[in-house]
Amino acid sequence: MAELFGDCLDDRRVELIEADVAALIRAAKPRYDAILLDVDNGPEGMTQSANDGLYAMRGLAAARAALAPGGVLAVWSQGPDRAFAARFEKAGFSVEDKRVRAGGVHGGSRHVIWLGVPK
């Protein structure tokens, strides 16, 4: 990662925690400026049923509560999912979807990243 991000992990504001992300989110008070979820294949293409809770209303509400004012929840997915986008908004977020390519502008498979800011 150092080739891509330099010494970003040396920044005093960065804290690495190795733990269950769902448990961390549920336990957090409003503290995170950003929560970035890149779990399984996204909300629709689950490979681990234990991760379903991250994308359910309860999980989205917990993420919203864990964000500091002005924070953002970003969710990566292997593809579009209208039901998830609607649920994300219903959970109290203003949602924007970004369509991206795995290989950048030069091609690669298409993915979606939803950016949610609490309303």
Write up this protein.
The structure is a single chain. With 119 residues, this protein is an alpha+beta fold. The protein has a single domain (2-118), classed as Rossmann fold, CATH 3.40.50. The protein is 29% helix and 29% strand. The chain has five helices and four strands, in the order ααβααβαββ. It has a four-stranded mixed beta sheet. A hairpin with an 8-residue loop joins strand 3 (93-101) and strand 4 (110-118). Helix 2 crosses helix 4 (57-66). It is globular, with a radius of gyration of 15 Å. The model has no long low-confidence stretch (mean pLDDT 85).
Compact summary:
This protein has 119 residues and is of the alpha+beta class.
Q: Can you give keywords for this protein?
A:
alpha+beta; 5 helices; globular
Task: Describe the secondary-structure layout.
Layout: H1 2-5, H2 21-27, E1 32-37, H3 52-55, H4 57-66, E2 67-77, H5 82-90, E3 93-101, E4 110-118
Parallel strand pairs: 1-2
Antiparallel strand pairs: 2-4, 3-4
Helix pairs in contact: 2-4
Q: Please bin the fraction of helical residues.
A: 25-40%
What is the highest CATH level, the class?
Answer: Alpha Beta
- CATH architecture assignment name: 3-Layer(aba) Sandwich
Assign the CATH topology. Rossmann fold
Work out the radius of gyration. Answer: 15 Å
Name the poorly predicted regions. none
Q: What proportion of the residues form beta strands (DSSP E)?
A: 25-35%
Strand order of the largest sheet: 1-2-4-3
What number is the mean pLDDT?
85
The span between the termini is 34 Å
> What class would the helix/strand composition place it in?
alpha+beta
Domain count: the total is 1
* Shape category: globular
List the helices and strands in order.
HHEHHEHEE
Secondary structure: number of strands: 4
